[in-house]
Amino acid sequence: MAELIVSPTAPTEEGRVLLVTPESAGWQHVGFEVVKLEAGQSVRRDTADNEVCLVLVSGKADVHTKDEAWTGIGERMSVFEQLPPYSVYVASGDWYEVKALTSLELAICAAPGAGNHPSRLIAPGQVAVETRGYGNIERYIHNILPENEPADSLLVVEVFTPNGHWSSYPPHKHDRDALPEESLLEETYYFRVQPEQGFAVQRVYTDDRSLDETLIVKNGEVVLVPRGYHPVSAPPGYDVYYLNVMAGPSRTWKFHNDPDHAWIMTPPGKA
Length: 271
What we know:
This protein has 271 residues and is mostly beta strands. It has a single domain (5-265), classed as Jelly Rolls (Sandwich), CATH 2.60.120.10. It contains one helix and 25 strands. The protein has one helix spanning 22-25, and strands spanning 5-6, 16-20, 31-37, 42-46, 50-58, 61-65, 69-73, 87-90, 95-100, 104-112, 120-122, 128-132, 139-145, 155-161, 166-167, 172-173, 175-178, 182-184, 186-194, 199-205, 212-218, 222-225, 232-233, 239-247, 256-257. Strands 1-22-19-24-14-13-12 form a seven-stranded antiparallel beta sheet, with no helix packed on it. A six-stranded antiparallel beta sheet has the order 2-3-10-5-8-11. Strands 4-9-6-7 form a four-stranded antiparallel beta sheet, with no helix packed on it. Strand 6 (61-65) and strand 7 form a beta hairpin. The chain is globular. The N and C termini lie far apart (41 Å). It is an enzyme of class 5 (isomerase).
């Protein structure tokens, strides 16, 4: 099995600092990449057999595809502003070019595509915002590309976990192709931490403990979740952001809570 933490590297000539491919992860569906560009720099790619969701993590850019162009998009300069991002869905069999207008952090989320949906802008006003949990399991969600929005494989979401809180909690999994009870979805977690010297804690474990890892995750790292439960903790003093990319045989998110901890979903006084 691949190592579960992927750390950033020095930028390549085209600005890439992180790369996860199905081959490097040892799975079949999810690809993830982070590119950092300075104003005036650009990156251009063919999507080939993949559909892609370009998430402007921070900064502003012009984005072109074969048939479309969106200029001057982007608003937040830090994820911790907690504004919904600008994103662009790009179909398989298309291409995209992203030109940075400011310092730009760009996440490239990829999964197999079938060319069923046109490339399009996903503006902040189209991103559903929600709060999940209660007390110290409360966290804030930006649904960038949920299952009720058109795509062939990709599911993309942002989560903000305040310091001292837990998220992806109670522990849940989605590693069985057993609909309608549970879907099989590979998943990446791309972390940002504020202040940057902090860390998050993520556990990845299965019922039989054939996989049982407790990970210390630093700012800018990716965690691979090939299977199992995967809760996240934000230590006191450090706010945690992560960008999730999921894909699998069916484009639906049906998860199963760890039965040992499912009771936590009932708020105090609501039993």
